[in-house]
């Protein structure tokens, strides 16, 4: 996906789901992984609406794009995924956004911290990347009219 600026209208996760494909934003500093995730998710019917390797840019983009899902790595080129999660706690619209952490920092301490910061799911990048992509693809296939709290009950975290 090119690093060119996006021309978008501000929306909500609910509006995005009703308009068609599930929209996902990637917060990932590895160009190789961004391409892999984008290709995998696009093939699954997901619309990847943007990406950033920088926490500040990710927060600004998310404020404008308001996708249904954000995939967040903890280690970034600038800032961290934890900064993104903290910032999202300040926005009412972000409560409807599914926040998926996919990282190599897979210790119990990070898992607990990201859940306290509002992450809905946590995946170990070295072992669970395929599972994370399947989880997001399943969200894209789920009924867009199903309330988020019902989807969360159907897809309770595999790891506590």
What does this structure look like?
The chain is α/β, with parallel strands linked by helices. The chain has a single domain (about 20-145), classed as Response regulator (Rossmann fold). The chain contains 7 helices and 5 strands. It has helices at about 15-20, 30-45, 55-65, 80-90, 110-115, 125-140, 150-155, and strands spanning about 25, 45-50, 70, 100-105, 120-125. It has a 5-stranded parallel β-sheet, sandwiched between helices. α5 links the parallel β4 and β5 (about 120-125).
What would the keywords be for this entry?
alpha/beta, Rossmann fold, disordered N terminus, 160 residues, globular, five-stranded parallel sheet
Topology:
Layout: H1 13-19, E1 23-27, H2 31-43, E2 47-52, H3 55-65, E3 69-72, H4 81-88, E4 98-103, H5 108-116, E5 121-124, H6 125-141, H7 148-154
Parallel strand pairs: 1-2, 1-3, 3-4, 4-5
